[in-house]
Design a protein that fits this description.
With 230 residues, this protein is α/β, with parallel strands linked by helices. 49% of the residues lie in helices and 11% in strands. The protein folds into 2 domains: 20-76 and 161-229, 3-Layer(aba) Sandwich (Rossmann fold), CATH 3.40.50.1820; 80-147, no CATH class. The two termini are 15 Å apart. InterPro entries: AB_hydrolase_1, AB_hydrolase_fold, Carboxylesterase_BioH, Peptidase_S33.
C-alpha cells in the first residue's frame, strides 16, 4: 500500500502550481516511481475526485477504484446548501468561535489555525461525543492547511463541465466501489449522479458512520473494501 502527501500538503513543499490536472499528473508520477503497471486506487473526499480523474486520464493503469465519501458530478448547487445547513447544526455552540477564527483569516497564529481546523473537522463525525477527539487526532502532528491549494482546486472543480465529465464516466470500464457513511453531513444524494452513470459500480453505505467511515465503522469499512479488492 502506498500513501503520499499531495503537492502543497502534509510534508510536501508548499509549492504550486495547483490544479486538478497537476494533481492527476503527480499521482501518475507516484505510480511510475514505484514501477507499478496497474494499481487499485482509493480516494477519500477530494481524493475520491482525484482518483476518479486519474482513472479517466489513465484507465489502463487502474485495476479497481474505491471512492470514499466523495461527491457526484452534478453542480454543487444541488447539494451544497443542505451541506452548509448541516455543517452549522453540527458545529452547535462552537459556531461563534469558528466564525471568529475564520474572520481573522491571515491574522491567526499557528495554534489558532489548528483550532479552526479541529472545529471544522469535528463536524465530519457522526458520534458527537467523540468528534473532537477524532478531529484532534487528525490534526496531530500538525502540518497546517494550504489555503491557496484548497481555494484554487475548489474553484476549478466548481467551474468544471458536468456534461463532459458524465460522458467520460459513462465510458469508464474500471470496476468502482462507492463507500458512504450514512450520517455524512454532505447529502449522500450528491453522489447519486456518479453512481447512475458509471457502468461497473457497486455502492456500500455504512450505518452510523460520518465522513470518515473507517474511523467510526472500521470493521464495516474493511469488509466492504476488502471484498471488493479481492
Amino acid at each position: 500500500m502506498y500513501h503520499w502527501d499531495q503537492r502543497g500538503c502534509g510534508r510536501s513543499q508548499r509549492r504550486g502550481p495547483y490544479s486538478v490536472d497537476r494533481s492527476v499528473a503527480d499521482l501518475d508520477a507516484v505510480r511510475r516511481h514505484f514501477g507499478l503497471d496497474r494499481v487499485a486506487l482509493l480516494g477519500h473526499s477530494w481524493g475520491a475526485r482525484l482518483a476518479l480523474g486519474h482513472a479517466l486520464a489513465h484507465p489502463g493503469s487502474v485495476s479497481r477504484l474505491v471512492l470514499v465519501s466523495g461527491t457526484g458530478i452534478d453542480d454543487d448547487a444541488t447539494w451544497h446548501p443542505r451541506y452548509q445547513d448541516a455543517f452549522f447544526r453540527a458545529l452547535g455552540e462552537d459556531r461563534a468561535r469558528w466564525e471568529e477564527l475564520r474572520a481573522r483569516d491571515t491574522d491567526r497564529t499557528q495554534a489558532e489555525d489548528r483550532e479552526l481546523a479541529v472545529l471544522q473537522w469535528s463536524v465530519d463525525f457522526a458520534d458527537r461525543d467523540r468528534a473532537r477527539e477524532h478531529a484532534e487526532a487528525m490534526a496531530t502532528p500538525w502540518f497546517g492547511v494550504n489555503a491557496e491549494c484548497n481555494a484554487t482546486i475548489g474553484a476549478e472543480l466548481r467551474q468544471g463541465s458536468a456534461g463532459l465529465l458524465r460522458e467520460r464516466c459513462a465510458a469508464l470500464e474500471v470496476p468502482v466501489l462507492i463507500v458512504d457513511g450514512e450520517r455524512d453531513i454532505r447529502p449522500r444524494r450528491a453522489v447519486d449522479s456518479l453512481e447512475r452513470v458509471l457502468p461497473r459500480v457497486r455502492r456500500t453505505t455504512l450505518a452510523g458512520a460520518g465522513h470518515l467511515p473507517w474511523t467510526e465503522d472500521p470493521e464495516g469499512f474493511r469488509s466492504a473494501v476488502g471484498a471488493f479488492l479481492a
